[in-house]
Amino acid sequence: MLKTEEMGVRLDLSEAEQAFQAAVREYADEFVAPRAAELDSLKRFPIDAMREMAAKGWLAIITPEQYSGLGLGHFDLVLLGEELNRVCPSTGVSWSVHSSLVTSPLITFGSEALKEKYLPVLARCERVGAYCLSEPDYGSDAGGLQCRYQEVEGGYRLKGTKAWITNGPDAQLFLVFATKDPAMRTKGISAFFIDGETEGLSIGKKETKLGIRASSTSQIFLDDVFVPTENLLGEEGRGFHIAMHTLDGGRVGIGTQALGIARGCLEATRAHVLENGLDKHQSVQFGLADMAVQCDAARLLIYRAARLKDLGRPHSREASMAKLFASEAANAAARRAVEIFGNEGIFEGSIVERLFRDAKITEIYEGTSEIQRLVISRFVLK
Fold first, then answer.
1. 166 in the same domain as 88
2. Catalytic positions, written as ranges
Protein backbone atom coordinates (compact mmCIF):
# COMPACT_ATOMS: atom_id res chain seq x y z
CA MET A 1 0.00 0.00 0.00
CA LEU A 2 1.35 3.42 -0.94
CA LYS A 3 1.93 5.89 1.85
CA THR A 4 0.00 9.15 1.64
CA GLU A 5 3.03 11.23 0.72
CA GLU A 6 3.78 8.98 -2.26
CA MET A 7 0.52 9.76 -4.01
CA GLY A 8 1.02 11.79 -7.16
CA VAL A 9 4.57 10.56 -7.86
CA ARG A 10 4.95 10.51 -11.65
CA LEU A 11 5.85 7.17 -13.17
CA ASP A 12 5.66 8.29 -16.80
CA LEU A 13 8.33 10.14 -18.76
CA SER A 14 8.32 13.77 -19.84
CA GLU A 15 9.25 14.64 -23.42
CA ALA A 16 12.73 15.67 -22.28
CA GLU A 17 13.17 12.38 -20.42
CA GLN A 18 12.02 10.41 -23.46
CA ALA A 19 14.54 12.24 -25.64
CA PHE A 20 17.33 11.59 -23.15
CA GLN A 21 16.36 7.92 -22.93
CA ALA A 22 16.44 7.62 -26.73
CA ALA A 23 19.89 9.22 -26.87
CA VAL A 24 21.43 6.91 -24.28
CA ARG A 25 19.75 3.87 -25.87
CA GLU A 26 21.31 4.76 -29.23
CA TYR A 27 24.73 5.19 -27.63
CA ALA A 28 24.42 1.88 -25.76
CA ASP A 29 23.41 0.00 -28.89
CA GLU A 30 26.01 1.52 -31.19
CA PHE A 31 29.07 1.88 -28.95
CA VAL A 32 28.71 -0.14 -25.73
CA ALA A 33 27.06 -3.36 -26.91
CA PRO A 34 29.66 -4.19 -29.60
CA ARG A 35 32.48 -4.03 -27.01
CA ALA A 36 30.77 -5.86 -24.16
CA ALA A 37 31.80 -9.46 -24.91
CA GLU A 38 35.43 -8.52 -25.54
CA LEU A 39 35.67 -6.41 -22.38
CA ASP A 40 34.20 -9.31 -20.40
CA SER A 41 36.57 -11.87 -21.93
CA LEU A 42 39.66 -9.70 -21.42
CA LYS A 43 38.50 -8.38 -18.03
CA ARG A 44 39.29 -4.89 -19.31
CA PHE A 45 38.00 -1.81 -17.49
CA PRO A 46 35.65 0.22 -19.76
CA ILE A 47 37.70 3.41 -19.65
CA ASP A 48 36.88 4.30 -23.26
CA ALA A 49 33.14 4.31 -22.52
CA MET A 50 33.74 6.30 -19.33
CA ARG A 51 35.61 8.98 -21.27
CA GLU A 52 33.00 9.05 -24.04
CA MET A 53 30.23 9.50 -21.51
CA ALA A 54 32.24 12.19 -19.75
CA ALA A 55 32.38 14.12 -23.03
CA LYS A 56 28.57 13.95 -23.19
CA GLY A 57 28.21 15.09 -19.57
CA TRP A 58 26.91 11.68 -18.49
CA LEU A 59 29.38 11.23 -15.65
CA ALA A 60 27.95 14.37 -14.09
CA ILE A 61 24.21 13.98 -14.59
CA ILE A 62 23.32 15.04 -11.03
CA THR A 63 26.25 17.46 -10.65
CA PRO A 64 25.16 21.13 -10.56
CA GLU A 65 26.04 23.14 -13.66
CA GLN A 66 28.50 25.40 -11.79
CA TYR A 67 30.71 22.33 -11.26
CA SER A 68 30.66 21.21 -14.93
CA GLY A 69 27.55 19.05 -14.53
CA LEU A 70 24.16 18.73 -16.23
CA GLY A 71 22.15 19.56 -13.10
CA LEU A 72 19.61 16.78 -13.72
CA GLY A 73 18.13 14.30 -11.23
CA HIS A 74 18.53 10.75 -10.01
CA PHE A 75 15.67 9.72 -12.29
CA ASP A 76 17.93 10.53 -15.24
CA LEU A 77 20.57 8.26 -13.72
CA VAL A 78 17.97 5.48 -13.85
CA LEU A 79 17.17 6.13 -17.51
CA LEU A 80 20.85 5.97 -18.47
CA GLY A 81 21.61 3.07 -16.16
CA GLU A 82 18.93 0.80 -17.56
CA GLU A 83 20.21 1.25 -21.12
CA LEU A 84 23.87 0.70 -20.19
CA ASN A 85 23.20 -2.38 -18.09
CA ARG A 86 20.94 -3.86 -20.73
CA VAL A 87 24.00 -4.38 -22.93
CA CYS A 88 27.00 -4.30 -20.53
CA PRO A 89 26.53 -4.49 -16.75
CA SER A 90 30.28 -4.08 -16.23
CA THR A 91 30.17 -0.68 -17.88
CA GLY A 92 26.96 0.09 -16.01
CA VAL A 93 28.34 -0.50 -12.52
CA SER A 94 31.67 1.22 -13.26
CA TRP A 95 29.75 4.30 -14.38
CA SER A 96 27.27 4.10 -11.48
CA VAL A 97 29.89 3.98 -8.72
CA HIS A 98 31.70 6.97 -10.22
CA SER A 99 28.69 9.12 -11.06
CA SER A 100 26.45 8.22 -8.12
CA LEU A 101 28.15 6.60 -5.11
CA VAL A 102 31.14 8.95 -5.23
CA THR A 103 29.57 12.04 -6.77
CA SER A 104 26.26 12.14 -4.86
CA PRO A 105 27.67 12.38 -1.29
CA LEU A 106 30.15 15.00 -2.47
CA ILE A 107 27.26 17.10 -3.80
CA THR A 108 25.14 16.60 -0.68
CA PHE A 109 27.72 16.78 2.12
CA GLY A 110 30.85 18.33 0.64
CA SER A 111 32.19 21.75 1.52
CA GLU A 112 32.31 24.34 -1.23
CA ALA A 113 36.07 23.91 -1.46
CA LEU A 114 35.77 20.13 -1.76
CA LYS A 115 33.11 20.42 -4.47
CA GLU A 116 35.20 22.85 -6.48
CA LYS A 117 38.24 20.62 -6.08
CA TYR A 118 36.72 17.30 -7.14
CA LEU A 119 33.35 17.60 -8.91
CA PRO A 120 34.74 19.01 -12.21
CA VAL A 121 37.53 16.42 -12.10
CA LEU A 122 34.99 13.60 -11.73
CA ALA A 123 32.76 15.12 -14.41
CA ARG A 124 35.60 15.11 -16.95
CA CYS A 125 36.81 11.63 -15.92
CA GLU A 126 40.22 13.03 -15.10
CA ARG A 127 40.03 10.73 -12.10
CA VAL A 128 37.89 7.62 -11.70
CA GLY A 129 36.13 7.45 -8.34
CA ALA A 130 35.79 4.52 -5.91
CA TYR A 131 33.55 4.13 -2.84
CA CYS A 132 35.36 2.38 0.04
CA LEU A 133 33.05 1.20 2.81
CA SER A 134 33.28 -2.61 3.09
CA GLU A 135 36.14 -4.40 4.85
CA PRO A 136 37.34 -8.02 4.82
CA ASP A 137 35.34 -8.89 7.95
CA TYR A 138 32.62 -6.25 7.68
CA GLY A 139 30.39 -6.20 4.62
CA SER A 140 26.74 -6.07 5.67
CA ASP A 141 27.64 -4.72 9.14
CA ALA A 142 28.91 -1.30 8.13
CA GLY A 143 28.83 -0.16 11.74
CA GLY A 144 31.62 -2.57 12.62
CA LEU A 145 34.40 -0.91 10.62
CA GLN A 146 37.96 -1.50 11.84
CA CYS A 147 39.78 0.91 9.53
CA ARG A 148 41.00 3.56 11.98
CA TYR A 149 41.71 7.27 11.80
CA GLN A 150 43.33 9.61 14.29
CA GLU A 151 43.43 13.37 14.26
CA VAL A 152 46.88 14.91 13.77
CA GLU A 153 48.16 18.38 13.05
CA GLY A 154 46.61 19.61 9.80
CA GLY A 155 44.37 16.60 9.27
CA TYR A 156 44.03 12.87 9.92
CA ARG A 157 45.97 9.64 9.52
CA LEU A 158 44.20 6.46 8.35
CA LYS A 159 45.22 2.83 8.69
CA GLY A 160 43.33 -0.28 7.59
CA THR A 161 42.07 -2.37 4.67
CA LYS A 162 39.03 -1.96 2.43
CA ALA A 163 37.64 -4.90 0.46
CA TRP A 164 35.60 -5.58 -2.69
CA ILE A 165 36.12 -2.04 -3.94
CA THR A 166 34.52 -1.50 -7.34
CA ASN A 167 36.78 0.54 -9.68
CA GLY A 168 39.59 0.10 -7.14
CA PRO A 169 42.40 -0.90 -9.53
CA ASP A 170 41.50 1.92 -11.95
CA ALA A 171 40.53 4.67 -9.51
CA GLN A 172 42.48 7.80 -8.64
CA LEU A 173 40.04 9.22 -6.09
CA PHE A 174 38.75 7.25 -3.10
CA LEU A 175 35.87 8.02 -0.74
CA VAL A 176 36.97 6.15 2.39
CA PHE A 177 35.01 5.48 5.57
CA ALA A 178 36.99 4.95 8.78
CA THR A 179 36.30 4.94 12.51
CA LYS A 180 37.88 6.85 15.35
CA ASP A 181 37.27 3.90 17.66
CA PRO A 182 35.53 0.61 16.73
CA ALA A 183 33.88 0.60 20.17
CA MET A 184 31.93 3.72 19.15
CA ARG A 185 30.28 1.75 16.34
CA THR A 186 28.27 4.05 14.02
CA LYS A 187 29.01 7.18 16.07
CA GLY A 188 32.74 6.93 15.45
CA ILE A 189 32.71 6.78 11.64
CA SER A 190 33.84 9.63 9.41
CA ALA A 191 34.27 9.94 5.63
CA PHE A 192 37.34 11.20 3.74
CA PHE A 193 38.32 11.89 0.15
CA ILE A 194 41.81 10.58 -0.62
CA ASP A 195 43.81 11.19 -3.77
CA GLY A 196 45.14 8.01 -5.35
CA GLU A 197 48.75 9.17 -5.36
CA THR A 198 48.77 9.80 -1.59
CA GLU A 199 51.71 8.13 0.16
CA GLY A 200 50.68 4.98 2.03
CA LEU A 201 47.68 4.18 -0.17
CA SER A 202 48.11 1.04 -2.26
CA ILE A 203 45.93 -1.19 -4.41
CA GLY A 204 45.59 -4.94 -3.94
CA LYS A 205 45.49 -7.49 -6.74
CA LYS A 206 42.66 -7.25 -9.24
CA GLU A 207 40.04 -9.82 -8.28
CA THR A 208 38.78 -12.50 -10.68
CA LYS A 209 35.00 -12.67 -10.44
CA LEU A 210 32.06 -14.79 -11.58
CA GLY A 211 30.45 -11.89 -13.41
CA ILE A 212 30.84 -8.18 -14.24
CA ARG A 213 34.39 -9.15 -15.17
CA ALA A 214 35.22 -5.91 -16.97
CA SER A 215 34.38 -3.99 -13.81
CA SER A 216 37.58 -3.93 -11.76
CA THR A 217 37.57 -4.90 -8.07
CA SER A 218 40.33 -5.00 -5.46
CA GLN A 219 41.30 -4.38 -1.87
CA ILE A 220 42.60 -0.94 -0.85
CA PHE A 221 45.36 -0.72 1.75
CA LEU A 222 45.84 2.36 3.92
CA ASP A 223 49.16 2.49 5.76
CA ASP A 224 49.32 5.64 7.87
CA VAL A 225 47.76 7.70 5.06
CA PHE A 226 47.62 11.43 5.73
CA VAL A 227 44.40 13.23 4.78
CA PRO A 228 44.22 17.04 5.08
CA THR A 229 41.45 18.51 7.20
CA GLU A 230 39.71 19.97 4.14
CA ASN A 231 39.23 16.46 2.70
CA LEU A 232 36.92 15.41 5.53
CA LEU A 233 33.46 14.93 4.00
CA GLY A 234 30.77 16.56 6.10
CA GLU A 235 31.25 16.58 9.86
CA GLU A 236 33.45 14.27 11.87
CA GLY A 237 31.42 11.37 13.26
CA ARG A 238 28.75 11.67 10.56
CA GLY A 239 30.26 9.11 8.21
CA PHE A 240 27.73 6.37 8.90
CA HIS A 241 24.87 8.75 8.14
CA ILE A 242 26.60 9.76 4.90
CA ALA A 243 27.15 6.11 3.95
CA MET A 244 23.52 5.10 4.59
CA HIS A 245 22.14 8.17 2.81
CA THR A 246 24.34 7.37 -0.17
CA LEU A 247 23.39 3.68 -0.19
CA ASP A 248 19.71 4.55 -0.62
CA GLY A 249 20.68 6.00 -3.99
CA GLY A 250 23.11 3.14 -4.56
CA ARG A 251 20.32 0.61 -4.07
CA VAL A 252 18.27 2.37 -6.71
CA GLY A 253 21.36 2.19 -8.92
CA ILE A 254 21.86 -1.55 -8.43
CA GLY A 255 18.12 -2.10 -8.84
CA THR A 256 18.51 -0.30 -12.16
CA GLN A 257 21.44 -2.54 -13.07
CA ALA A 258 19.30 -5.58 -12.31
CA LEU A 259 16.46 -4.17 -14.40
CA GLY A 260 18.85 -3.66 -17.30
CA ILE A 261 20.05 -7.26 -17.01
CA ALA A 262 16.49 -8.58 -16.91
CA ARG A 263 15.55 -6.50 -19.93
CA GLY A 264 18.66 -7.61 -21.79
CA CYS A 265 17.68 -11.22 -21.13
CA LEU A 266 14.13 -10.59 -22.33
CA GLU A 267 15.21 -8.87 -25.53
CA ALA A 268 17.84 -11.49 -26.38
CA THR A 269 15.45 -14.35 -25.65
CA ARG A 270 12.64 -12.83 -27.70
CA ALA A 271 14.97 -12.46 -30.68
CA HIS A 272 16.23 -16.04 -30.27
CA VAL A 273 12.70 -17.41 -30.04
CA LEU A 274 11.54 -15.63 -33.19
CA GLU A 275 14.67 -16.52 -35.16
CA ASN A 276 14.37 -20.20 -34.29
CA GLY A 277 10.62 -20.66 -34.61
CA LEU A 278 10.08 -21.36 -30.92
CA ASP A 279 7.25 -18.88 -30.51
CA LYS A 280 4.50 -21.53 -30.76
CA HIS A 281 5.70 -23.41 -27.68
CA GLN A 282 3.50 -22.52 -24.71
CA SER A 283 6.27 -23.03 -22.15
CA VAL A 284 8.41 -20.54 -24.06
CA GLN A 285 5.52 -18.08 -24.28
CA PHE A 286 4.96 -18.34 -20.52
CA GLY A 287 8.66 -17.78 -19.87
CA LEU A 288 8.67 -14.60 -21.93
CA ALA A 289 5.48 -13.43 -20.22
CA ASP A 290 7.01 -13.88 -16.77
CA MET A 291 10.13 -12.00 -17.80
CA ALA A 292 8.08 -9.12 -19.24
CA VAL A 293 5.97 -8.79 -16.09
CA GLN A 294 9.03 -8.82 -13.85
CA CYS A 295 10.74 -6.15 -15.95
CA ASP A 296 7.75 -3.83 -15.81
CA ALA A 297 7.18 -4.37 -12.08
CA ALA A 298 10.85 -3.74 -11.31
CA ARG A 299 10.87 -0.60 -13.46
CA LEU A 300 7.85 0.86 -11.67
CA LEU A 301 9.41 0.23 -8.24
CA ILE A 302 12.67 1.83 -9.37
CA TYR A 303 10.90 4.81 -10.94
CA ARG A 304 8.98 5.40 -7.70
CA ALA A 305 12.12 5.34 -5.57
CA ALA A 306 14.04 7.63 -7.93
CA ARG A 307 11.17 10.14 -8.18
CA LEU A 308 10.88 10.25 -4.39
CA LYS A 309 14.62 10.87 -4.04
CA ASP A 310 14.47 13.75 -6.52
CA LEU A 311 11.53 15.21 -4.59
CA GLY A 312 13.55 15.07 -1.39
CA ARG A 313 11.11 12.63 0.22
CA PRO A 314 12.02 9.62 2.38
CA HIS A 315 12.76 6.65 0.13
CA SER A 316 14.75 4.08 2.12
CA ARG A 317 11.89 1.58 2.08
CA GLU A 318 11.21 2.16 -1.59
CA ALA A 319 14.88 1.85 -2.54
CA SER A 320 15.17 -1.46 -0.70
CA MET A 321 11.98 -2.76 -2.30
CA ALA A 322 13.22 -1.79 -5.75
CA LYS A 323 16.65 -3.35 -5.22
CA LEU A 324 15.25 -6.57 -3.72
CA PHE A 325 12.62 -7.18 -6.38
CA ALA A 326 14.73 -6.16 -9.36
CA SER A 327 17.76 -8.22 -8.35
CA GLU A 328 15.69 -11.35 -7.85
CA ALA A 329 13.83 -10.67 -11.10
CA ALA A 330 17.16 -10.34 -12.94
CA ASN A 331 18.34 -13.72 -11.71
CA ALA A 332 15.02 -15.36 -12.56
CA ALA A 333 15.10 -13.82 -16.05
CA ALA A 334 18.70 -14.93 -16.61
CA ARG A 335 17.93 -18.50 -15.59
CA ARG A 336 14.90 -18.64 -17.86
CA ALA A 337 16.83 -17.11 -20.74
CA VAL A 338 19.59 -19.73 -20.52
CA GLU A 339 16.98 -22.50 -20.36
CA ILE A 340 15.19 -21.25 -23.47
CA PHE A 341 18.47 -20.83 -25.36
CA GLY A 342 19.40 -24.38 -24.43
CA ASN A 343 22.89 -25.47 -25.47
CA GLU A 344 23.51 -22.11 -27.11
CA GLY A 345 23.00 -20.39 -23.79
CA ILE A 346 25.79 -22.02 -21.82
CA PHE A 347 28.83 -21.19 -23.94
CA GLU A 348 31.06 -18.14 -23.58
CA GLY A 349 30.13 -15.59 -26.20
CA SER A 350 26.39 -15.99 -25.69
CA ILE A 351 24.87 -12.79 -24.34
CA VAL A 352 22.61 -14.71 -21.96
CA GLU A 353 25.57 -16.67 -20.59
CA ARG A 354 27.27 -13.37 -19.77
CA LEU A 355 24.13 -11.83 -18.29
CA PHE A 356 23.52 -14.99 -16.25
CA ARG A 357 26.94 -14.52 -14.62
CA ASP A 358 26.45 -10.78 -14.24
CA ALA A 359 23.05 -11.13 -12.56
CA LYS A 360 24.14 -12.85 -9.34
CA ILE A 361 26.07 -9.95 -7.85
CA THR A 362 22.96 -7.75 -7.88
CA GLU A 363 21.57 -9.85 -5.01
CA ILE A 364 24.75 -9.28 -3.01
CA TYR A 365 26.31 -5.83 -3.25
CA GLU A 366 24.73 -2.59 -2.00
CA GLY A 367 23.10 -4.78 0.64
CA THR A 368 22.19 -8.44 0.18
CA SER A 369 18.61 -9.54 -0.36
CA GLU A 370 18.52 -10.50 3.32
CA ILE A 371 19.55 -6.97 4.33
CA GLN A 372 16.85 -5.51 2.06
CA ARG A 373 14.26 -7.71 3.74
CA LEU A 374 15.45 -6.51 7.15
CA VAL A 375 15.10 -2.87 6.07
CA ILE A 376 11.65 -3.41 4.56
CA SER A 377 10.37 -5.41 7.53
CA ARG A 378 11.32 -2.61 9.92
CA PHE A 379 9.08 -0.24 7.99
CA VAL A 380 6.29 -2.80 7.90
CA LEU A 381 6.49 -3.31 11.66
CA LYS A 382 6.59 0.38 12.59
1. no
2. 366
